[in-house]
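Quick one: structure tokens for this chain, please?
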Amino acid sequence: MSETRLVGVLGGMGPAATVDFYGKLVEETAATCDQGHVPVVIWGDPRVPDRSLSLLGGGEDPTPYLRRGIEGLKRAGCEVLAVPCNTAHAFVPRLADEAGLELVSIIEVTADALDADGVRAAGVLATSGTMHAGLYAEALRRRGVAAIEPDEPGQRQVTTAIGAVKSGDVRPTHRQALEELSRALADRGAERVVTACTELVLALDGSRVPVPVLDPARLLARRVVDMVLGAQRLPPRRRTAGHNTTVMAGAPTAAPVNRPKMIENLTVANSGWVAASS
């Protein structure tokens, strides 16, 4: 049997989203013992400057921090790279290529799922930086899928909700705003709503939206497990009948209310190495 490739997770952007992604990676694996899971090294450095602010021209370039993390994962023996931060994908592909790591793009994985499901219009909730960089708009355009985005006041509400998750202070008003924005996107023709920021999946109740809500973090986890373990992945458990896209089933699985105790068996450092499983 060939040796399973080691997966590097460039995390910390933000910490709660990184923990959520790792949990989904575990959930998507049909393991009966520790040794059956995906071997992972997580680099969690929350000091990475704000990616969105940088893209909008008002913040520090995060490239040196991202490069340091990717190089650290490379030195640790990783061959595959997953980044549970959508906005970081404006910077990461070139850095992954420089390091010789195979990037599993959360953007491309999500766009592939929409295309496979025959979706022709998708609502996108993301950071202002992701919108400005056109990350989803371009990926969807290549597949003939229209990206429907919030208006300017709506985008401000998205930004506020993302900040609430990062600060561990999600309130009912944040959840309600995201639900209303999602319904508005559906009213404008969106067949799916994509939570294109890994914090948003922790604050939006998909059961309160009239169209399926996609969770790119779970799609990314599923693709990584498929690549590394192949047939050992669990059968899909969170799909709507007749659809290929992974959707949120009801309320968020790890939505923080105030400051959550999301980490019990995972040792987290504020910078550098977080965890390795084998």
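The radius of gyration is 17 Å.
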